[in-house]
Amino acid sequence: MRGLKTIVLFVMIVGIFILLLGCKISNKKTALESTKDTDTPNNKIVIGITLQDISNEFITMLNDALQEKAKGYPDVELIINDAEAKPDKQVAQMESFITQRVNAIILNPIDANALIPSVESAIKSGIPVITMSSDISKDVGQVWSGSENYYAGKIEAEYIVKKLKGKGNIAILRGPIGHLAEIDRYKGYIDILEQYPSISIVYDQTANWQREQAMAIMENWLQSGKQIDAVLSQNDAMMLGALKAIEDSGKQGKIITAGIDAIEEALDAIKGGRLDATCFQDSKGQAFAAVEMAIKASKGEKIQANIIPFELVTKNNVNSYYDRIRFK
Predict the structure, then answer these.
(1) pLDDT (0 to 100) of residue 8
(2) Burial 254-276 (b: 16+ CB within 10 A, else e)
(3) Could you count the other beta carbons within 10 Å of the beta carbon of residue 327?
(4) Minimal CA–CA distance to 109: which of 211, 184, 208, 181?
(5) 166 Rama sector, left if φ>0, alpha if ψ -120 to 50, beta otherwise
(6) Would 112 disulfide with which of 88, 98, 137, 230, CB 3.0-4.6 Å?
(7) Domain with 54 in it: what CATH number?
(8) Among 80, 87, 48, 45, CA closest to 64
(9) Please, which residues bridge with residue 76 across strands?
């Protein structure tokens, strides 16, 4: 009898243990499910952004504009990466955004061709891609917010040709070879310059958007003794570097100079009579629109390209551009 009671008691204890264990497992499962729910952002829109090189003044302006625009959207989070002018690093950043499953990507591509597979991969994963300022060389479903670089080249070259009265020697400073802005701006140059047989391109070299490289290149050109009547630069940073070399050589005012972007230092140089011209590229307009486009696209709304014209800036109109690059 005592043995039977012992067996019954044992069975009861085992039963209670199994019941408690089952409750514990059930509670744990519920807790995991609850955690999964809270890990999902509460209507938060996450936008991954990879920029060419924040050490570049114009890219800094784009970066500032992106963050300024995002202030008006408390439900939007920007993850901003600096590719440091390295295409492979930018590719890795794109892959990271895809893995993170961000809601949208704003890409400021360094290389027109190297980033094509990354954009294709993002779009196939259901992540909309807005290319900002620069673009890739193939349409794979990205939507662009920027300014048509071909026309910047034409505007700049037309200005130089007019100042030279159709004849003289020109030196050209290019951005990184293969960058879409470099390609299109150069095409704009050539389409204008080839109309003037009395104008010669005596030097043509890349300075990779970099001020220091442009300064060193300009120093070498000036030391060669070859006549240079004008310098066409594909951005302001390179032009300002070349301008320093021109000034150091005592040739300020003897060489016509023009750049592209209308960064504040270039505006100051025009106002002070040191630089002849630049082409205004609307960093605020490009970046503000890119953020709006990314938000709409992440919600499944249809978006269209945002194209903003370049504008010639000279001493006659330079004062009107300061407010267009600054934040109030």
Answers:
(1) 36
(2) ebbbbbbbbbeebbebbeeebbb
(3) 10
(4) 181
(5) left
(6) 137
(7) 3.40.50.2300
(8) 80
(9) 45
The answer to whether residue 15 is domain-embedded is no
Q: 278 pairs with which residues across the strands?
A: 313
Q: Characterize the bridge pairing of strands 143-146 and 76-82.
A: unpaired
Domains contained in the chain, number: 2
The amino acid at 29? K
Residues 79 and 162 in one domain: no
pLDDT score, position 33? 25
What Cα–Cα distance (Å) separates residue 201 from each residue in 26, 109, 160, 241, 257? 78, 29, 12, 20, 14
State the pLDDT at residue 154.
Answer: 98
- Give the pLDDT of residue 42: 60
Domain assignment of residue 252, given as a range:
149-280
pTM of structure: 0.84
Q: Return d(Cα 84, Cα 212) in angstroms, integer.
A: 16
- Is the residue at 121 inside a domain? yes
Whether 273 and 159 map to the same domain: the answer is yes
Q: Can you list the residues of the chain whose pLDDT is less than 50? A: 1-40
Model confidence pLDDT, tens digit, residues 72-105: 999 999 999 999 999 999 999 999 999 999 999 9
